[in-house]
Each structure stands twice: as structure tokens, then as C-alpha cells.
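TL;DR need C-alpha cells for one chain.
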Amino acid sequence: MGNIFGKKPKPSKQPAITEQDRAILQLKQQRDRLTQNRRRIESQLDREREVAKQLLKNGHKDRALLLLRKKKMLESQMDKSENILENVERMTHDLEFAQVQVNVVNSLKQGNDELKKMNAILKLEDIEKLMEDSREAIEYQNEVSNLLSGGLSRVDEQDVEAELDELIRNEEATQIGHLPDVPHRREGEHERVHVTSPTRVKQRVLLEAD
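>> reply
TL;DR here they are.
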């Protein structure tokens, strides 16, 4: 029936516990036990000091001295526990840091191997050839597009603009050649108007009649 409604999800794979993990765990457990022992001794020392004071007040000097000796032994034991605890904490820190370094080195090694595989696939010569082929394909496609759309290439556009400039210069030169000449007069000189008198007109008519 379980297959009808779908497959059951597979449980996530837990990371394997290494010997380093077990060693770190044991060191931390030892550290916790040492810490608890130190607190117990500190509490016992405070209590026995108060008891010794009370014995002295009651006149039990011998019992007070015996209790103080016991207190001194506990203090020596606590000092040794402090040294052991410091060493355990240092070792725990060093082991954890070494484990981090190993993980970093393994990651770098794996990354370097993958990079070498990628470099083997993507050779420099192949990339240069691919780029050259792509550039030629793009240029060819642009030429085909220009032909299909009736467009001009950049070189053709430059030729057209050069031809237009030449036509403009020729037209300006032609217009300058067709302009009328301007007569040159001296300053203050007026144009002379020839007027024929009526007598001379009559004499010319009689001569033409003869």
C-alpha cells in the first residue's frame, strides 16, 4: 500500500563519526567532570573554614587544627585539578583547530583537482578558436542581415557621404561660374545716357529717303 501513495523519503545520511570526534568528545566530558570537582572542593573549603572558626570559639583547638590540615590538602588537590583542566581545555582547542585545518586542506585539494579537470576541458587554444569562429559567424550574419534588409555597410555609408560632399562642391563651383560680371566704375562717376536731338532725327530720315 505504501507504494501506491508514493515512495517513502530516504532518511538523510548522517556524517560518519571519526576518531578525532570521539577524542574531542571524551576531552570535553573530562573537562566537565573536572569543573564539577573544582566547584565541589571550593564549596567544601568554605564550609570547613567556617567550621574551624566555630571550633576555635568553642575551645577545640586540636580539632580545628586537624580540619585546617584537611582544608590544606583539598586546596592542593584543587590546584592539581586546575592544571589538569587547563591542559584538557588546551588539548581540546588544539584538536578542534587541527580538525578544521584538515577539512580546509581537503577542501582545497578537492577544489584544485576539479579546477585541473575544468582546465583540461577548456584549453586555451580551443577557447581562442571558439572566439574567432564566433566573431566570424557574427560578421557573416550581419552581412546577410544587411543584404536582406537592403541596408548598407559602414564602408558603403562612408562612400555615399564622400560622394555627396563631392556633388556639393561641384554645385557650388558651377553657381560661382554663372554669376554676371559686375562693371567697375570710378568713385563719383555716373552712367552716361545718350540722348538724340529731334533735329538730328529729322536729318537722318531725309537722308534715308534720298
